[in-house]
């Protein structure tokens, strides 16, 4: 019995000493290479990431249903998104503007442009603030860019002496939502007749008295005042052909 008690006592004394010794197979301390420290940024366990502004704008846009608009004065047609609200029509009937609150605007219109060129109509577009695209051909012109958080997009076409214009302006964050809308509306835009062909080379000028102004299919005596005009009823006026001045000549008032 005494030998058994001695053995038990010796075991109990040895137990704390064994627990205090470090073990090569124990848990790795926090902060070691095997167990990185927790990230300072909390990681959500549930839920999805917040949507991007462009993705939210796509969901914000109402369903894309279109109705057709026909302009009685200039006889052009275009599809209009149904969620855009028409503004009161102008008294001259040249077109119409549609808005979506303060977020977007669309305009389709026509204008008499006899003897005008696309350079006359769109030459200054390259000077617009924030312009990113600007092209001019003999029959069309296009400009697009960004200014003050808005995207602007404008297309002009000359046909049969009329300038037809389609314009969009919308908040920049709506770009992803509006790209397919603008594509559809532009494809639906129809104006009368084919575009006017580029101007043909000028025909041979008429034979005028040497020193006279020979432009616009006529002969004009140069002048500086009405008294220089020898033919009765003629006055001294600027001779302008296709928006280009050629000096003062004697012509009818």
Entry keywords:
alpha+beta, 253 residues, Protein Transport Mog1p, Chain A, single chain
Kindly name the structural category: alpha+beta
What's the total number of strands?
13
What is the CATH superfamily of the domain at 53-188?
Mog1/PsbP, alpha/beta/alpha sandwich
Please report the first level of CATH classification, the CATH class of the domain at 53-188. Alpha Beta
Question: CATH topology of the domain at 53-188, what is it called?
Answer: Protein Transport Mog1p, Chain A
How would you concisely characterize the structure shown here?
The chain is an alpha+beta fold. It has four helices and 13 strands.
Structural account:
By secondary structure, this protein is of the alpha+beta class. Among the domains are: 53-188, Mog1/PsbP, alpha/beta/alpha sandwich (Protein Transport Mog1p, Chain A), CATH 3.40.1000.10; 213-251, no CATH class. It is built from four helices and 13 strands. It has helices at 2-20, 53-60, 118-122, 175-188; strands spanning 66-70, 77-81, 85-86, 95-100, 104-112, 131-136, 140-147, 150-159, 162-171, 213-215, 218-220, 235-241, 244-251. A seven-stranded antiparallel β-sheet has the order 3-4-5-9-8-7-6. A two-stranded antiparallel sheet has the order 1-2. The chain starts with a helix and ends with a strand. Residues 4-51 and 199-205 have low confidence and may be disordered.
